[in-house]
């Protein structure tokens, strides 16, 4: 396979093979950032709320707004930076693998996580860059020169994401009948949290032995902003066992909700199961890279129902979650899938999120 492996640094989005037209895909609603910004009371906000309640995934059209266009431009630069990072020698990247110390940030090599309860290994490499580190909320972790030389750029990318997230958070809290700053007030960039940028790289896989690159999961935190150029992301359609691809759309981010939003809303909002497999059709011969920004509540925030609005109108449902802190929730979920700490089916199930118990 190595001989046919294309060099991703020499390929822009427009020269990549097309996403096939003849495979089942998830029909994600497209929300316009421009419309959300234009007024606080137009139909776009209702569409966002309904996407957040039903699939928990939607396209966010970033075009035609200052912050959205900035994110797209910065993402182009970060795709180049990502190429540089993943092209470093394996021994250099391994210096930044801190999993044995239970540190979530830094490098994870191929096969260092499990994708199921049987212990099957993953097929991608990752690099997680902490928001707290880049914004100097905490001391910096050791990082390769390609990263340290670009700290200011990464800070600016984090700020652009934060600005777009603030718009989404205000819309969702208003739709829930809560004060507009409810979510923003527990996601302050200056407070310690698990927000982070993630670089992902998955090499092409031999057709005869293809398997899941990134195991099924719900995201741990609040909202995730994902920039994909190739297919490979799949969502499980709610109430079924069926997995379908999400087609990347130029100019749009794919946004999804994580478990914290399910907990804050008492299950009104949904964080859906997803995974990454080989890209479809001819795209399977390419190196797949993706750029993700994960927002998470401040570490000290307790993950439980908020008071007020539609959340108060819910019945008691199941017994309310006892209220673990975000820090504890993240630690449990991070550790559960690392090969260093995997102990079989039970530890896999122990690492699960709200998919195991959707209404809280
Ligand atoms: O690469 C992707 O498309 C999705 C990655 C993902 O789900 C994650 O990193 O949590
Ligand atoms: Fe995810």
Structural summary, described in words:
The chain has 360 residues and is α+β, with helices and mostly antiparallel strands. It has a single domain, classed as B-lactam Antibiotic, Isopenicillin N Synthase, Chain (Jelly Rolls, Sandwich). The chain has helices spanning 33-38, 43-54, 66-86, 90-94, 131-134, 145-148, 151-175, 259-264, 309-312, 326-336, 345-350; strands spanning 30-32, 57-61, 106-108, 125-130, 196-202, 214-217, 223-228, 233-236, 243-245, 252-257, 274-276, 288-294. It has an eight-stranded mixed beta sheet with strand order 1-2-10-7-12-5-4-3. Strands 6-11-8-9 form a four-stranded antiparallel beta sheet, with no helix packed on it. A hairpin with a 6-residue loop joins strand 8 and strand 9. 42% of the residues are buried. Residues 1-5 have low confidence and may be disordered. 2-oxoglutaric acid binds at residues 198, 200, 214, 219, 226, 228, 233, 274, 276, 290, 292. GO terms for molecular function: metal ion binding; oxidoreductase activity. InterPro entries: DIOX_N, IPNS-like_FE2OG_OXY, IPNS-like_sf, Iron_ascorbate_oxido_reductase, Oxoglu/Fe-dep_dioxygenase_dom. Keywords: Iron, Metal-binding, Oxidoreductase. It comes from Hyaloscypha hepaticicola.
